[in-house]
Predict the structure.
Amino acid sequence: MAADFAKGKESRPGQTEKNYMAQNNKLINLENVTKKYGSHVVLDDLNLYIRENEFLTLLGPSGCGKTTTLRIIGGFETPDTGRVIFDGQDISNVPPNKRQLNTVFQKYALFTHMTIAENIAFGLKIKKKSSQYIKDKIEYALKLVNLDGYGNRMPDSLSGGQQQRIAIARAIVNEPKVLLLDEPLGALDLKLRQDMQYELIRLKNELGITFVYVTHDQEEALTMSDTIVVMNQGYIQQIGTPQDIYNEPQNAFVADFIGDSNIIGGVMLEDHVVEILGAKFQCVDEGFGNNTPVDVVIRPEDVDLVEPEEGTIQGVVTSLIFKGVHYEMEVEANGFSWLVHSTDLSPVGKKVGIRVVPFDIQIMNKPESEDEEAVGVNE
């Protein structure tokens, strides 16, 4: 139940029992954390644990509370209520420089009057490390981010992607147990952003430290994460692996936010049979009762366009866009505009049948109130 994450319980549905039991390895634990700015509640009784060596992404739209959560973990904000437990110790009131973590921001915050080596060495000098130790660490960090030999260059001589890697190098030389990343790729162009995604995966695997990553970009989250935390309106909507989040969304918000979806009101007639737009579809879901109003989620790539007589319902193609790897089509059928992704082209105006295999139909309870919809209850 998604509300379990938002209020009280610590669980991650959809993950294996082995992964669930691995919560004993949790490094960070947010307990009943609430944060307000004036009368506006940004986080409402949030509970979340983060495991050691995990790449966990906080994902959601602007204003959902993901950056506030990161700032509370980093010590830049203090929760109004609740605790931040780090490696068994309460660090709720510990300042950022006393925590075993470092933060990489979207704006790289490199010192423009310092060389790359001086930027990387800044934190080590504050800690009064020896000259040889600092030199070795600079060389190590530059090799790790594939910028060996760049130590004497100035920040303004580097590209955006190179500057971001220097910001990461400056963070990792301090040997944090956790690296916090607040939308660090947002200022990069698409190709650089994709390249840096793979760089971050490589760094996480080589360093063996915990990454906590904030983004509103679903592709970033799906590409890099071990675990995704989907947030909205100060609540956690769902926690799971990228596969769980995409294939088994727990409510309409998650289904709509992660990728494209056809979200249709339906009626669960009985176990394994749902009525959608007046037609009966076989599905694999059960336990919803009989004649129960539900939300039905069908991904565009799971909609098969067939000859009209072969489909469960019939419609007409009203729009066609070539997307490179597939065609994106809209099909008007039974009063609903279906979004379809397919490598097979069906031209505008063609009459088609719509067929969906039972496994690709996801059934969810309808929220009973606006509050329940915000929390994402899926009992």
